[in-house]
Amino acid sequence: MLGANVWAGGNELDLIARRGRQLRFVEVKEKRGPGYGDPLEMVTAEKQRRVRRAAAAWLAARPELDGLTVRFDVVAVRDGALQRVEDAF
Amino acid sequence: MGKRTGQKLLKFDRSLGARFVAGADEAGRGSLAGPLVVAGVLLDYACLKEHRVRPLTYLNDSKQCSEQRREELFHAVLACAEKVAVRVIPPGDIDRYGLHKSNLAGLRAMLHALSPPAEACLVDGFRLGPSAPEHTAVVDGDEKSAAIAAASIVAKVTRDRLMRRLAALYPAYGFAQHVGYITPGHSAVVRRIGPSAVHRLSFQALCYQGEAAVPV
Q1: What are residue B38's DSSP bridge partners?
Q2: What does pTM read for this prediction?
Q3: What is residue B13's three-state secondary structure?
Q4: Do B202 and A87 touch (CB under 8 A)?
Q5: What is the pLDDT of residues A32-69, one digit of tens each?
Q6: Count of domains in chain B?
């Protein structure tokens, strides 16, 4: 875990984690109550863009992490249960 | 009328001191259906002066433009650019190789297509790794650099046009409205009738599990 609620490039990154040579930027979405709701639906194109910009800004300040690959995940939290979508955008 | 952002973006590229500046960008990364489109635009700053550069007055990042403005800028870029490269990466490739890998490989190919004669290569946001031509990742590049903004326009317009055609082939999904991105409406259709041949099946979308699936 490299960071949580990190502000970079004018936007917030919920979670930054590293596993080996891969950096994972995780967008966390909380959903309360019943009804259909795909975690992916909660992350609009605009939101994706903002997270990617924040990640780019965060990385730009850390040239030592240059060789790592990058992945964007979404984690949905609903009534205490976690659902993860990898490589969501 | 829109902001005349073009000058600022051209100034950024000119400040690099190179004659040939290449920019690359993509469209359709986070989309559930349809291709990923990458584009590269090479600008010759020895030629882009005075009246020749006027069509690019309103050049800006594609997402900040109206659809009509984007179409106008698409034509302007084709008129003003030294070279334009485009690649359409099909959903099958995204499923096979992964989104990020496909994206980086595509952007690398765009820069290679423009080098030579590109002297400065710019990409939006993330570096492309050592197998790309020497390049600079510009944070918020599609808002700062004319070459990157031009590439973002070409990628977006190409992709949107493709998605409108795919809407004719697969009318149930609403491709003309959301160009393949997941929305509650899009999700509902997939849940009901299943994905089309152009949906990215590697995406872990709940709607692929059909109506029987009960979400967490």
Answers
A1: B26, B87
A2: 0.91
A3: helix
A4: yes
A5: 666 556 777 778 888 898 999 999 999 989 988 888 88
A6: 1
